Every structure is written in structure tokens, then in C-alpha cells.
Amino acid sequence: MSRDRQHASSFRDPAGFIFVDKDTVYRQINNQGKADFDHFIESGLYDVLVKKELIVPHTEVKKPAGSDPDRYKVIQPQAIPFISYPYEWAFSQLKDAALLTLRIQKLALKHGMILKDASAYNVQFIGKKPIFIDTLSFKKYVPGEPWEGYKQFCEHFLAPLAVARYTTYDVLKILAVELEGMPLDMAVSLLPPRARFGRGLLSHLYVHNASQKKYQNAGAAGTVPTKRKISAFAMDGLMASLQSSVKALRAPKQQTEWGNYYDFTNYTDEAFKRKQKMVRDFLGKVSPKPKMVWDMGANNGEFSARAADLGAYTVAFDIDPVAVERNYAAKDEAYQTTMLPLVQDCTNPSTALGWMGAERDSLFQRGPADVVMALAIIHHLAIGRNLPLPQVAAFLASIGKHVIIEFVPKEDSKVQILLASREDIFPEYDIEHFQKAMEQYFTLTEKKAINGTKRTLFLYKNKQKKA
Amino acid sequence: MHSLLNQFGYLDPGTGSIVIQAVVGVVAGVTVFARRRITPVFYKIRNLFSSQKTRDAKAGKDNDE
Q1: Are B18 and A226 a contacting pair at CB < 8 A?
Q2: Residues B26, A237: contact at Cβ < 8 Å?
Q3: What's the pLDDT tens digit per position in B30-64?
Q4: Residue of A343, A427, A452, A456 with fewest CB within 10 Å of its CB?
Q5: Chain A residues in contact with B17 (beta carbon < 8 A)
Q6: From CA A457, how far away is CA A444, in angstroms rounded?
Q7: pLDDT digits (tens, 9 = 90+) for A114-140
């Protein structure tokens, strides 16, 4: 029965739940959610949202298996190629998710509906496009009723974005600990005084926080307001205000542009082009043709694009949120739905989180990828982070069926920089030891020196994880 | 408290958040409404000093029906 395969993160809403059957995601709509769901469809709201590509389209499952007295319908939503979480997003991804939520809310209100919640987890990305996935988040709107999702919107979106904007963009990592969003009192205590002048922040964060504090112990002391109405006019005003507040939060300035990228590498233009071609060739040699590629340390997605060119869905991971931001902001139409930039530290990858430690999947659980690309990263792991090569090999073997990896030897100027201010305690960091470590888990498919550099490109096939 | 929320009460909206919405919403609504009235006038004045190019660039807006 569907309830046996209910997803570990989908249990709070009595209107329905997500379950997985044979690797396919379904959504069961319970009788409790029938009225709202029917209105969602009949009002035309669903069609509008699908037409504008704001929500995942779904098909109805004609004959759902088993019996369930609570069940009304089962739908199959369009699959998301790679699930990601708000704490893995760069600033602008969270910002666009917020704006998407508000845009959907405005359309919903026009159709007599309102969002039940405003969780950042209602949004996923297909490539660089945010898309709403919670088809059951809509309920009938009765003008006069307040918005239940206002608090959640401020904590999931506005507060973390504002704190990131006014302090440091790295602060978004906090969302991996604060799964319910950044509490407003935390946001207010982190924000510098000038944030009070940020558009809308005084109302939605500071005054909002004060109001929360005042009624925290409501019932115990003083009166609790029993009737709170908010007119449709005020509701529209609230949405417009939230939208302009989010829009006003500036993304981090991108330090280096595409053109300047070359200045920071030790490649000549010629060697760089050669590496591009080699990566493309190696990707072409992977059989069967890869559908999912993870690029570790992708920076601005320069090489991830080579995988996307060949038709693979490519996740471009980088530890630097500004690099991810740069990748996301690139308006190259070719990769809008095939390249997903995400923040990730491979020496501390996302772990399973939430209730029962099972609501949000670890990075490992979302793999393995058909191909993992590890270009210009091995020296950062082995030398920068003191990771023994056999362990790096083991890590790669746990996430990829094939690996394209660039070995960067000690003679390379970048490694010289890493070793400049420390003792060289890495007698076993060389290409022979590297190959020996990899061959514990992989068989060698291709090996080619990158002419014009001291580096070598390898293509390995996982012995254990078969395609 | 329950009477003003839907029968599901799926999400804890927070009393303080409900209370403040009405105030913030009205103020924001008035501001937005006023801004919508004043902005075209403001742009007309500003456009006297700017080139057509900048005018076109600023013209792009969100259009949901």
C-alpha cells in the first residue's frame, strides 16, 4: 500500500503525501484534500501555473494499486532529475525560489486560492529554473483570512537572504541546521543596524520579530486577539511588499568574470582549449552514454558544460558560493535546464537531515552519478586537506560509476603554492601512487597527458558500481 | 484561535505573525497603491533627463496576466 512507501519527509500534511514506488515519485491526495485539489484544477489555477512553467505538471494514475479508504487520487508529478536543498543553494537561487513562491501566491489569490505554507522545500530546480513541487499547497482563499505562511516565508526566505546580504553570503549554510528557516530573533541579532533601512526589512523582520516575542506566551498573560482579519487589499499589499523586499536584496558581486577566469589558472589559452577537447572526448568514451554527471569543484561550470553538451544532466558543485552564483547567473540559454549549480564541500558533503535523520538525503544517497568529474581538484583534497590518495579514490568510488580526473603533480605551480608555506609531508603524492590508489576501485579506460601542462587526464571505470 | 484558521491547521502560523500581518499589509498596501500612482509621474519627470535607451531598459516588468 502507498503508505508503506511514504517518503520520510512527507507526513505533515493531512491532505496527502508523497510516496515512491519503483524509483518513481507519486503523490497521493487524501479525501481531506479533495475539495481544495478539485478547486485547484477547476479554477484553472493549475493550468495557468503549468503554462507559465511555475509548477511541476502531473498526470493522474488511473488505477492506483491497493486500497486505502483515505485516498482520493494518485498523481504522478514530473520527475526532478536531481533533488537539492535550500542549504545547497547560492544566494540567487534562494532569492529566485522566494520570488517564485510569491509569484505563485499572487496567481493563486487571483483564482480564489492561497498557499498553505511558504517552505523553501516546496521549490526544486531543473537546471537553473526554479519550479514549485507542492501541488497540495493550495487551499481555498476566504478574503479576510490571514496568510498562514507569512511567518514561514520570512524565516525560510527573507531572513536568511537579508542576513546573507548584510553580513556574508556564506551564512546561508545555517539553513542546514535551521531546517525550519532562520528564526527572526536570530536574524535580527545578526543584522547590522543599517539593515533596518533595507526595503521592507523593518516591518517583515524587526517589527515581525517584536510581534512574535510579544505573543510568544499568549494565553498565559494578557489577552489573545481572537479575531484577526486582513482584507484582500492588505493581503495584496503584503505580497507586493514581500516581493519588493526580496527583490531589493542584492546578490554578491561576482569577483571574477568569465574573461578573467584564465588569469587565475596556470593554463595557457591553448592548453585550456586542449583540456576542454580532451574532457569532451573522454566523456564521449563513457559507455553507456551518461545521463547524470557530477562535476566536483566545477567553479563557473566551464567544464560541466561539456557534459551538458553531450546531453547529460550536469550538477556543477563548488565549495565557493560566489562561483556557484556566477554559474547560476550566466544567462547562456544552452544550459538553462541541463546544468544545476550547487554549493557543496566534498570534504564535508551534505548529510541526511531532519526528522529521524531521514527527511533530507545525504549527497551519497542521491548518487551515484554516471560520471564524476574531478578536474583541478585532487591537489586541494590530497595536499590542501591532507586526504590520503586511497581515501580520495574510495570517496570517488562511492559517488561515481565512471570518473574523469585530472592529476596535478607536485611540479605544477598550483601545488607549489599549496606547499609554499608548509612542510612537504606528502612523499606519496605522485602519479604512481595516484594510479595505484585509483586502481583499487577502478579500471583504467584512458590516460592522456595534457600537453602544455604538467597534468594528466584519466578516465576510470568503477569496478563495483556498474552502469 | 482555531476558528479563524482553516480546519486543517497544517502549519503553525504563529500568533505574532498573524497579528502583525494586518498592520504591515495595510501599510504596505497603501504604499504600493500610492507608489503605483506616483511612479508614472516620477518617471515622466525623470525621462526628461534621460536617453531613450535607458528608458527602454527600465521598461521591462513582471507581467502575470
Answers
A1: no
A2: yes
A3: 887 888 788 888 888 888 887 666 655 555 455 67
A4: A427
A5: 150-151, 154, 208, 211-212
A6: 11
A7: 999 999 999 999 999 999 999 999 999
**A171-188 residue pLDDT tens:** 999 999 999 999 999 999
The contacts of residue A309 (CB under 8 Å, 6+ apart) are A280, A334
A175 contact partners, CB below 8 Å, separation of at least 6: A85, A86, A87, A120, A160, A181, A182
Q: Which three cell numbers stand for residue A121?
A: 522545500
Contact indicator for A463, A454 with CB cutoff of 8 Å: no
d(CA A23, CA A231): 45
Phi, psi angles (nearest 5°) of residue A82: -145, 120
Instruction: Please judge whether A208 and B4 are an interchain contact, meaning their C-beta atoms are less than 8 angstroms apart.
Output: no
Instruction: Give the Cβ contact number of residue A357 at 10 Å.
Output: 11
Say which residues have a Cβ less than 8 Å from residue A273's Cβ, sequence separation at least 6: none
Q: Which three cell numbers stand for residue A369?
A: 552519478
Confidence of residue A258 (pLDDT cuts 50, 70, 90): very low
Nearest to A230 among B12, B25, B64 (CB): B25
- In terms of C-beta distances under 8 Å and separation of at least 24 residues, what long-range contacts does A442-449 make, across chains too? A442/A393, A442/A396, A442/A397, A442/A403, A445/A285, A445/A402, A446/A282, A446/A285, A448/A278
Distance from CA of A70 to the nearest CA of B (A): 15
Residue A203 C-alpha, separation from nearest chain B C-alpha, in angstroms: 6
Nearest CA in chain A to B18: A146
| Residues on chain B touching A151 (C-beta within 8 angstroms) | 12-14, 16-17
**Is the confidence at residue A256, as pLDDT, over 90?**
no
d(CA A111, CA B19): 25
Nearest to B1 among A106, A145, A224 (CB): A224
CB contact under 8 A, B29 and A234: yes
Amino acid identity for residue A5 in this structure: R
Does the predicted TM-score (pTM) go above 0.90?
yes
Contacts of B62 in chain A (CB under 8 A): 103
Distance from CA of A155 to the nearest CA of B (A): 11
What end-to-end distance do the CA atoms of chain B give, in Å? 36
Task: Give residue A12's identity as a one-letter amino acid code.
Answer: R
Of B23, B25, B62, the CB nearest to A235: B25
Mean pLDDT across chain A = 93
Which of A107, A212, A244 has its CB closest to that of B14? A212
**ipTM value:** 0.79
Instruction: Provide the b/e sequence for A126-142 (b: ≥16 CB within 10 Å).
Output: bbbebbbbbbbbbbebe
| A343: nearest Cα among A88, A76, A121 | A88
Nearest to A241 among B6, B32, B64 (CB): B32
